Amino acid sequence: MPLEAVITNCYILVSVSPLDVLRTDHTFGKHTRTRTQTEEERMFGRRAAQLCSELAQNDDDRLRRFDNDLFDQVIEEANEHYHQLETRMVKMQQEGLDIETTQNRDYFGALIHHLSLVRNKRCLMSYVYNRSQSVQRLRWQLGAVLPADLQEKLNFSEKEFFKNYSDLLGSYMTSIDLDLTVDTTPPKDPYIQVRVMDDLGEVLLDDQSTTLLRNSIHLMKRTEAESLISQGLLEEFTG
Amino acid sequence: MSSYYDLEDLLAEEEPVSVLFRVAADGVGILDPSSEDNNVEQGAKVDLPLWLAQDLFQRQAAFINLPSYFNQRVRKEMQADPGCVDIRSRCPYFYGVGCKLVPLTNDATLGSFLLYTLRGRYKDILCKSHSAAVSSTPKVMQILSREETILFQAGRESMTAFKKWRMEGTRMERAAVLGKKRKPQGEL
Question: GINS subunit domain: from which residue to which, for each copy (chain A) (predicted)?
């Protein structure tokens, strides 16, 4: 324990900014001091909440890069809580107290670390879960192959997840012999007019090869156009 | 009720509330900025995130004081004209925090105050979300809480969808994940 305290103190010494010193000097009285900014950042569960707010404030549906740094920091904090929790429990056992019924200072210290651990876990789970939902949507919107700039925003497990999910959906669609990702809005006409957004070269459409040039307008099968529109290569042409 | 993975619910629980410790706790000095050893003493008054305050209250380890944005002054202001009160600067999760505090406080009027507030502001939010131009950010959004912003955006989206349907616009679109801006490709 003493070593623990020394380390914590060192950390405070290193991380205090001049502004913090100013703020602490004048507010010495008990119960009157508010937390400084550095202390605020070290508050239990604060980084985990930061991680989640990054995701929640993302209004325009764009996927951001997986925040490995912050994610690891939260895991680090959780480890610290676990370590502290264990220390308290061992101490209570050594004093011959019954952990289930005693409610002393150590018990409440342990309780707070336990609650923080649970909270951090919830934040991490929520981060991973909500991202996995976005990854699932990618399969429906963009098909089995992701563009390179999206690829690099996923971390390793998310890439694995995408691949497995894609395979699963693919094999299900093969078994029922139906492409579920097309006709998400009920079609009025099996054919559709589209404008090409980029030089795509030779594309196999309706069993014959067609050259799609930028800004040219084509009439093609709706089912074939839908995935290309979703990928941003074509645009529905109304005019 | 909210789910375990709900981000908005999770962030509402991060809002600070003022708490009075009924017990002492060792090894959690960071919670109390005025403690000199690594402990929190009995009777210490500190700001804790709601998730921690909630559980400590349920275990009778702490009292919770209502945050200042639920005090009488704000309530009077709200009675005068709910639509004009700036909620966002007071607490972005006004309703979320309020709902969570209802079972934890002995103030029986809190629940009805929240309902009164939302009822007073709802019509205004709905009208403005339907009439505001799509690309601009109307002034009213600056005073909305996070929950109200979500309502506002839902209203706006339904209006855009309705207009599109009436004009018989395009029905298939580029996926939103790719972003809105088109890259100037293929121009040599």
Answer: 104-176
